[in-house]
Amino acid sequence: MTTETSSIPDVLKTAEAWRNSGRPVALATVIETWGSAPRPVGSHLVIDADGNFEGSVSGGCVEGAVVAEAIDVIDTGRPTTLEFGVADETAWQVGLSCGGRIRVYVEPVN
Q1: Residue 14 and residue 18: Cα distance in Å, rounded?
Q2: Could you give the CA distance from residue 57 to residue 89 in angstroms, rounded to a whole number?
Q3: Cα separation of 65 and 9, whole Å?
Q4: Quick one: which of 20, 25, 64, 67 has the fewest CB in 10 Å?
């Protein structure tokens, strides 16, 4: 039997479950890609205030940096947009092994 929630990606179900259990949550979403980015636009990563996460925005390339920013987003309540790629100032800290670029929007889930 198909239900309305069957089309919701698992990571969004996780975000809802975590939020319903009282865990502060942020959602990171790929909003733009250039070149050979490892995840398509619309890919999600859900993060809680303790740094636990589920999903992927880059196949493991920048998840650590996104998680760190998401914890700040949870603390401040202010969304942010992150950009990663081989040509930016974070290239030596985090980067996409495939050489592409991505923009990720991180927002608190209320």
Answers
A1: 6
A2: 19
A3: 23
A4: 20
Q: What was the pLDDT predicted at 97? A: 52
Query: Is the distance from CB of 8 to CB of 15 less than 8 angstroms?
Result: no
Residue found by looking up tokens 């809802």 in the block: 16
Element (H, E) at 13: helix 10-20
Go through 15-52 and write b for each residue having 16 or more CB atoms within 10 A of its CB, e for each that does not: beebbeeebbbbbbbbbebeeebbbeeebbbbbbeeee
pTM: 0.81
Count of CB atoms within 10 A of residue 106's CB? 24
Strands of 1-110 (E only): list them: 25-34, 44-48, 53-55, 80-85, 101-109
